[in-house]
Specification:
The chain is built from 24 helices and 29 strands. By secondary structure, the protein is α/β, with parallel strands linked by helices. It folds into 3 domains: 352 residues, TIM Barrel (Alpha-Beta Barrel), CATH 3.20.20.70; 141 residues, Rossmann fold, CATH 3.40.50.720; 134 residues, FAD/NAD(P)-binding domain. The protein is globular and about 80 Å long. The chain starts with 13 loop residues before the first strand and ends in a 21-residue tail after the last helix. The model has no long low-confidence stretch (mean pLDDT 97). Bound molecules: adenosine-5'-diphosphate and iron/sulfur cluster. The site of iron/sulfur cluster has 13 residues, from α12 and α14.
Length: 688
């Protein structure tokens, strides 16, 4: 039972059909970019969550047949018996910690192009696949439907063999065929599987019943269902068929895992939604069913969780992202260490791993994805091997993470900040519209180091090379960050843009510093992540006329990977930002700029008063080169190393800066790898 009796309720067991969850913490299915391609990494990542106290740990979507596969995107794979050992290994680890293992078998229809298997995708009706692949899904005939039901049953039996306790029937995110059959927008059939509501839910009902018959004696058979697609009458709605469905099948599954669709709505970023944003849509479910209900909403606060249970909204607290940012969230609540929770910031860097087919990473948790390949544990770190001291210059995400991780190792650390506030770029960026939660990157680390007697923090102290020499630390870490460049050099322009040295040209650092900027302003975004769009939003909200120019086809292009692009562009259009895609900036004068079409170079002139360059950043590394000039004096003073981390080495994401700081701390005085710095999962040559 937890240290704090207020949280007792969160540690009550919950019966889910034939199995029992030891508490109310439920890691719902989530993608991770590892899946079938990096199975050892995937298994260890899930096992760490079980160790961290999650009573239920689920897989991501798991493909059940080669006629529905997501390559190059990496999901789980259970095509035949050969895949069973992968999951059996994961489940053994999950069970060792007393947790239940859940699997989400998925058949994705027109949302999987089958680029690897070359099988023709199948859907309720003929339609092209998503993502603009030149592939069409064909309409399933009766034999196909029969086969599909059989594949689901096979998947359930294999799941049971692999040791799963919970088996999903998945109809969420507009991603699975059972959901496509339900939707009038996807299902135009005229047989008994199309038309009326009863007909459209027939396939789902059949799969649910057959799964229960096949494995329901020992496994919980649960439903993941999107009660609302947030598209009014064009989709499922919690006021209409979304609710009818729950009413119709209320007591059939062993548990309801309910959410909103599509994935961008379900995993909305903090820029667009607050914690608990799904509650108004899902809260009706518990009034209809007596079965346990799990839902998500980026819950990181135990008080909010208690309230959800007490108010009868949820029985189990579902989490994907909060469990990635802090796999030990339940244990920390149990042990009365709520202040140690590393709260998810809702940035969706983790989601990008799925889109980019690479192991998931997390801004808050630098060990995410590294559990197996580097052996990094989110809560354990090797103790120091020497009594050496470390001076860290800069308190941005890289410096703070480095200080807290070195502090945990027991090193004597001094961290120094030039300004009067800690946090570096997260302090600044968390003040931009919608990014307040990003401040948690600073808050967590500040909380940790303030409790460490071996870490000293000094503010308002800009260090120069002489100070550092005089300080005499064994190791010096430069975490001095970066600054946006003004000359327009980036991806499109490899040399300075004509006129970029004018005093009407600004950078995001100027905006953040509060410089007065007169409109109309042209923002040139050749960075393509969030900063260009955020600058447009901020300036427009300050009532400045904004034109956003980008060489890409859409604004903030990389945010497709964080499920935000559509929302960003919609918001900018709605607040009156003029968007000029597919153009480069070629020259700047006092009252105008010249743009060029990226295809034809055809020029276009735009009147404006100011220009804001969002193209690239340059490391703040002068101090490093000054120290290098004094390397002889440094080493005679006993210094053993000077190292740049984070943006000071190469500007990147906040996640990259945190990782960089963590990596330094892990590796200090540890043996370096000669070559590949992590364990690889090598594919085997198959028998000829
Ligand atoms: P990163 O993302 O790599 O952590 P940031 O730009 O967020 O980098 O943070 C860099 C921090 O370093 C800022 O807070 C800045 O004020 C501080 N800083 C830069 N130069 C010095 C210096 N010479 N002495 C002390 N602090 C510095
Ligand atoms: Fe949360 Fe961002 Fe980490 Fe994802 S990457 S779990 S959204 S902090």
């Amino acid at each position: 039972m937890p240290q704090d009796p207020r949280y007792d309720i969160l540690f009550e067991p919950v019966k889910i059909g034939p199995v029992t969850a030891k508490n109310r913490f439920y890691q719902v299915p989530h993608c991770n970019g590892m899946g079938h391609a990096y199975p050892s990494s995937m298994a260890e990542m899930r096992s760490v969550k079980a160790e961290g106290g999650w009573a239920v740990v689920c897989t991501e979507e798991v493909e059940i047949h080669p006629s529905s596969e997501h390559s190059p995107i990496i999901e789980g794979r259970l095509w035949d018996d050969a895949d069973i050992p992968v999951f059996a290994r994961m489940n053994e680890k999950i069970h060792e910690h007393g947790s239940l293992a859940g699997i989400e078998p998925a058949y994705s229809g027109f949302t999987a192009a089958n680029l690897y298997s070359r099988e023709i995708p199948m859907a309720p009706s003929h339609r092209p696949v998503e993502d603009y692949h030149p592939v069409q899904a064909r309409m399933m005939d009766k034999t196909d439907i029969k086969n599909l039901r059989h594949w689901y049953v096979n998947a359930a039996k294999r799941s049971k063999k692999a040791g799963f306790d919970i088996i999903y029937v998945y109809a969420g995110h507009d991603l699975s065929v059972p959901m496509h059959f339900m939707s009038p927008r996807h299902n135009q059939r005229i047989d008994e599987y199309g038309g009326s509501f009863e007909n459209r839910i027939r396939l789902f009902r059949e799969i649910l019943e057959e799964t229960k018959d096949a494995v329901g004696d020992t496994c919980a058979v649960v439903v993941r269902y999107a009660v609302d697609e947030l598209m009014g009458s064009a989709g499922l709605s919690s006021l209409g068929e979304g609710r009818d469905f729950v009413e119709r099948l209320a007591e059939e599954p062993d548990l309801w895992d309910v959410n909103v669709s599509d994935w961008a709505n379900d995993s909305s970023t903090s820029r667009f939604s607050e914690m608990g944003n799904q509650e108004p849509f899902i809260s009706f479910v518990k009034t209809i069913t007596s079965k346990p209900v799990v839902g998500v909403g980026r819950y990181t606060s135990p008080d909010a969780m208690v309230s959800l249970v007490k108010r009868g909204v949820l029985d189990l607290i579902g989490a994907a992202r909060p469990s990635i940012a802090d796999p030990f969230l339940p244990r920390k609540i149990e042990e009365g260490r709520v202040d140690d929770i590393r709260e998810c910031i809702g940035c969706n860097i983790c989601v990008s791993g799925d889109f980019l087919s690479t192991p998931m990473r997390c801004t808050q948790n630098p060990t995410a994805g590294e559990e197996w390949r580097k052996g990094w544990h989110p809560e354990r770190i090797a103790k120091k091997t020497t009594d050496e001291s470390v001076l860290i210059v800069g308190t941005g995400p890289s410096g703070l993470e480095c200080a807290q991780a070195l502090g945990k190792r027991g090193y004597s650390v001094t961290i120094v900040e030039a300004t009067t506030e800690i946090g570096g770029r997260v302090k600044d960026e968390s003040r931009l519209p919608g990014l307040a939660e990003w401040g948690r990157v600073r808050d967590y680390r500040e909380g940790q180091i303030l409790n460490m007697l071996n870490v000293e923090l000094f503010l308002d102290s800009r260090l120069n090379a002489a100070h550092i020499l005089e300080f005499g630390a064994d190791h010096v870490v430069l975490a001095t960050g970066s600054k946006w460049r003004k000359d327009g050099v980036g991806r499109k322009n490899r040399t300075a843009v004509l006129g970029s040295d004018g005093d009407n040209v600004f950078t995001p650092d100027d905006v953040i510093a509060g410089c007065e900027i007169t409109g109309p302003v042209i923002i040139f975004d050749d960075d393509h992540y969030y900063m260009g769009g955020i600058m447009a939003e901020k300036l427009r909200k300050d009532d400045i006329d904004v034109i956003l120019v980008t060489p890409a086809a859409d604004v903030s292009h990389w945010t497709h990977n964080t499920l935000e692009q559509e929302r960003i562009q919609t918001r900018l259009i709605e607040i009156g930002v003029e968007i000029i895609p597919l153009h480069n900036i070629t020259s700047i004068a006092k009252d105008k700029v010249e743009l060029g079409c990226v295809y034809t170079n055809r020029p276009k002139t735009y009147q404006c008063v100011s220009v804001l360059m969002v193209t690239a950043r340059l490391p703040e590394d002068d101090l490093y080169y000054q120290l290098m000039e004094k390397s002889a004096s440094l080493s005679s003073a006993g210094n053993k190393s000077v190292t740049r981390i984070g943006d000071c080495l190469a500007p990147g994401t906040i996640a990259a800066a945190v990782y960089s700081g963590h990596r330094y701390a892990r590796m200090l005085n540890e043996p370096e790898h000669d070559n590949v710095p992590f364990r690889r999962e090598l594919s085997q040559l198959a028998d000829a």
